[in-house]
Amino acid sequence: MLNAQVFKKRHALMIFFLMVFFLGIYRLSKISPLEQSIIHEQAVNSQAKVFIAEASAGATTDFSYRFYLYDSSKTVEEFKKALSDDYSPFLITSDSNALSKIENGVIYLNVKGKVFSFNNLPAYKYNNSIYTIPVVIMAKPY
Question: Domain-by-domain residue ranges, the chain?
Answer without folding.
Answer: 35-140
